[in-house]
Amino acid sequence: MAKETRERDPTRPIHYEPDTEQDVSDFIGPMYPSWEQLERWVAEDSYEYPVIMCEYAHAMGNGPGNLSEYWKLVNNHDRLQGGFVWDWIDQGLRQKTDDGVDWFAYGGDFDNKLNDENFNINGLLFPDRTPSPGLVEYKKTIEPVAIKIKPDSHKIALENRYDFRTFEHLTGLWHLEVDGEVIGSGEFELPNLAPGGDAATEMPILDGNHSNGERVLTIQLRLASDSEWAQAGHIVATAQSMLPDSGEPSLPTTSSGGSLTIERQNRAIVISGSEFKIRLDEQEAGIETLLCQGKELLTEGPQVGLWRAPTDNDRGLPIERTLFSRLSRLAERQGSLSEDHLKTVGFAQLWREHGLNRLQFRTDMVRSEISTNRVEMDTKGRLGPSGFDHGFIIEQSYIINSHGCVRIETRIEPQGDFSALPSLPRVGLDLTLPGTLDTMNWYGRGPGESYVDSKDASLIGRYSRNIQQLHTPYVRPQANGNRTDIRWATFTDGAGTGLHVTGDSFLNMTAHHYTKADLELADHDHELPERDTVSVAIDHAHCGLGTGSCGPVTLPQYCIEPTVYTFNVELRPFKHN
Known about the structure:
Immunoglobulin-like, 28 strands
């Protein structure tokens, strides 16, 4: 066939993926190569064949992660010439419920006994052609202009990655924010760069306002006029950078705290101020009540949380129908396992094998100290699955001051053997809020969801969304809606009463009108309930996405090693004036 093809058209390159020796192929075209293999190829100084990945970045469900790592290799090494994301669109079939709600069906929804479930729901677009967060990240990763802000030299470095265009169709814009609020903006002149060229231009003058706080410069290149594919103002490329004179993010100030009223009530400590009331449960080692001006702000938690509803990439490849018989024959021959035997093992299987989906907490110690304007409750216990020797020692301190601020200091120490676990799902706190706190405001990355290995498209800024808008409607429900690098967040009701959240490091956060258990029980997005509460996860660390549904799992630098973690979170009740 290759011979016949070349006789008909000698200009057309031939690709045949199983041809690993290039007997007929004109280039190396691997399917989901490992990172180690890619690095070996690009490290070769002398080579005959270029590398084009015939499939990579499996876009199934929440993901793909690690796109920036792929394209750093592509942009830095001529031999690696790119690849083909699998797939463009989720291949779901539109259906309607009896009451007219649209939903999308996949394998098994038509009484077809032999099926691959949702394995064709693996595109950068949802079935209704709505872009997924994966497409937003992909657009950022392959943007045709590379921008690097160099504050120390007061330069903006630009690289033209177009093959045939200059920058004549683009406009350069900048804006400066302090703690997420814009204090200056304008245009800047773009150099006339030929395709493949690079140059530096002067940064805009930014010395007019040296406000305290975190100073972030944002650069955007936008279409100067309408085109056939997008309107004027469409964002083509972006970059952000902290400025050298940037300080720490400013946090809301509160009036000086008044005196506290503190009393003990049946294994509980009740702390009251002029605007708040907090009840600590010494038996359950946590917060029982948190009120602001008589309004309940907390219905459950906070509790240490390590679990997330597995994503498609967490689940790994579908298990081969003959896997166990193959393993049995291998054992009979006393053979050794190969990488191929284990490629269907995903993070989720290992998490469940370690019982991370059914952890239970046991309180071992509670000690309280009470002073005039401060209460501290120290607790110690064990979080673990029943029937296992391994688990986690949890030490927490709840410190309440005269402002009503609850500081939760947490230490997590693994106990037992976790050597077979590549990553924890997350490390943080779970809490449940009343459904009336239905608006989240935050200063961090947004506006859409982001994860540690998929956040380049999400710019640092101030954002506001109602809780429903934080949901990403993946066809098969799974963990979604995370926001990264959060400096602070608030959850408020319509009257401006709410809860303010900060940490001693940047946080990951999710908030939904359903629970993690709801996500795992639902097979389709429309099956998720809408509860009258808000389930919130406040994370010190959150595992990346990877592409484990049909490719490399999450890279080690985006995993959460089972080791000791310490972190602090502050919950502050407030009422807007």
